Amino acid sequence: INQKGQDVVCIYVAIGQKQSTVAQVVKKLEEYGAMDYTIVVNAGAGDAAALQYLAPYAGVTMGEYFRDNSRHALIIYDDLSKHAVAYREMSLILRRPPGREAYPGDVFYLHSRLLERA
Question: Domains in the chain, please, with CATH?
Fold first, then answer.
């Protein structure tokens, strides 16, 4: 909403959110005319862990596309803790050794790499 008229493409990545919550955000963006320059990537709470895991990477790839084409992009991850839960679920299914609180040891590395790309 604050980026209106500034030639910025906004990318909102909803990870593990309820559909009603995402619908409220989209409705608010539509009210303020922000959907003209906003992309919504949604991997809802009912979606597979693999989709929730991939959603932020899809969003950051879109942002990199706009960056590479000399445009500005703003990416919002909502929220990375649900991304960590999805990654933990996938790692446990793949029988990777768990770390602290059953999260894989490289989850923090994953997030730092993701945020560095953003």
Answer: 8-117 (3.40.50.300)
